[in-house]
From TrEMBL:
Keywords: Aminoacyl-tRNA synthetase, ATP-binding, Cytoplasm, Ligase, Nucleotide-binding, Protein biosynthesis. It comes from Lentibacter algarum. The lineage of its organism: Bacteria, Pseudomonadati, Pseudomonadota, Alphaproteobacteria, Rhodobacterales. This is Tryptophan--tRNA ligase. It is an enzyme of class 6 (ligase). It catalyses: tRNA(Trp) + L-tryptophan + ATP = L-tryptophyl-tRNA(Trp) + AMP + diphosphate + H(+). Belongs to the class-I aminoacyl-tRNA synthetase family. The gene is trpS. SUPFAM superfamilies: Nucleotidylyl transferase.
Amino acid sequence: KKRVFSGIQPSGGLTLGNYLGAIKRFVQMQDEDYETIYCMVDLHAITVWQDPAALRRQTRELAAGFIASGIDPAKSILFNQSQVAEHAQLGWIFNCVARMGWMQRMTQWKDKAGKNSQNASLGLFAYPSLMAADILTYHATHVPVGEDQKQHLELTRDIAIKFNNDYGVDFFPVTEPVIEGAGTRVMSLRDGSKKMSKSDPSDASRINMTDDADTLAKKIRKAKTDPDALPSEAEGLEGRAEARNLVNIYAGLADMSVEAVLRDVGGKAFSEFKPLLAELAVAKLAPISSEMARLMENEAEIDALLHTGADAARAIAAPILEKTYDIIGMVR
Ligand code: ATP
Ligand code: MG
């Protein structure tokens, strides 16, 4: 059976970008021909500062978000990364396989470290190496992610290939990215050239899964656009990043193609389109956020679920790590 792994950082609250770019696909893959493993990557989250109490709350809230969105712990393995030590252990080995130059080229590193990169954590620099370990410690073959993670997946392939070459083995699989659909690149509501992120300091830049109807409507009303009406064909979105983004979001939420959306709304002004988008977003997100709130009332139940998930994950990861140590020449 093909094996899927993907993770989300508990570095803030879930955004519509996470939902359309990742979780929606996670849910579908449970019912396809895959074994699915989904992780709250808390070790990744601390590559930038996280307040301990907030990290705890965000991890549980993320678990609630997964379940409320349709991840079924009976069908998928759901857990948080720090409970399965194999991730960090294999991550160290990959730190010794990957090259500094590979990391330096990563756009996420450049974006997140910013100008003052000497002050960024070493963990932030090595982020893709730990991500490769997340995936490869399960020998996962398919990784559903948003477009922004494509470069890290290519690096995961490079690490697998170099490890196999260095040790003359055919051990780690070469991973396939799964990046598809209108939602795989949701942009900031304030700047069409920047991706929507849960860690963006501006709350107005994103739609949170937990935003209430009024907040949603207000954020969409205030979203940056241009003065022209919507085009009736996709070519008309060329060079109109903000317009394209709102149409993409509509398409992702409605499960329609961009072309089909434009057939319906082409010619409308944004003042007409935005309320339609807000209505659709509320209809899709309100059931998820109310279910999240309900689940958050029972933290012990969430913790127990994560514990069970971690045991199941470790059962797969431990033998793969053992074999890795053996290949490398560690005496066990
Ligand atoms: P952070 O700002 O802390 O990096 P994030 O919102 O980028 O948070 P991640 O946990 O880094 O979220 O990524 C989780 C998943 O969501 C990944 O598969 C990523 O590709 C996807 N994703 C994140 N942002 C977007 C976006 N704007 N559009 C589509 N997919 C996204
Ligand atoms: Mg991110």
